[in-house]
Amino acid sequence: MTDLLSQLKQFSVVVADTGDFASIKKYQPRDATTNPSLLLKAAEMPEYAGLIDKVLADTRQSGLAGAALLDAAMDRLAVAFGTEILKIVPQRVSTEVDARLSFDKAATLAKARLLMGLYEKAGIPRERILIKIASTWEGIQAARELKVEGINCNLTLLFSLAQAIACAEAGVQLISPFVGRILDWYKKSTGKDAYPGATDPGVVSVSEIYSYYKQYGYATEVMGASFRNVGEIVELAGCDLLTISPQLLEELQKNTDTLTRKLQPGMPCNLPKMSLDEKAYRWMFNENQMATEKLSDGIRLFAADSRKLEVVISKKLAL
Questions:
Q1: What pLDDT was estimated at residue 35?
Q2: Which residues are catalytic?
């Protein structure tokens, strides 16, 4: 019998949400995504010590010192992991801009260009890289400019239709709406233990965004992310892409139930087409308590993991 993972690959592009090379090889996704939390986890695994040591040795030869040396090491480490991942996956890897730059458009632009420059120096073409940026207004506008330069972006920490509309209007390549974190918020705020099947608030949000994009002809790709269980993934079968942790990829591979496609172009969308300038965007986003709280939480969590990774790398650099 065909397992759920094999069936899912017929309807959606499967992406590995990990920095672990072994997991990526095992599940054979088309793309992979990384973030500071995943890189921190990988950096603490003994099998990657050699790669990290080489990156740090090379960085020491740059002539930089102190904070500049640490910044360069962090950037080169992210690109080194991405470069190794691209030896395994056939298409793209997402590499994240430091979450601490989420409200600084100019700094986001500079960091994105720097990361892309490192990839190009390693011989990686631009079409294989997605620069991952938080879905703040500043981040979305940075992505708009980067698109013109031929740098494609993955807008992450996306929790609302307002963010999705602004991304689509900016011509962003791909968005990552966070399914599980939306569910977390609703379970905590309502006290309900479970939202089965299609009633899951994260599933509802992604389905709404997907149908809106298809209804109004937006080319921006929708990649469901941050899953808490296989049920959420099953309900979003047919979404353009789904980025899935190794644990849930394993569960999908072991399950031989029959999978039915749930999302597809032409599905009904009852929303009018909207256009958002900055004021309209900020008001619409502010009206969504869940989205405002989860975006700020997500930025803080990614920033905290970046700081933890800096501590690990600082010790290795003997700073």
A1: 84
A2: 132
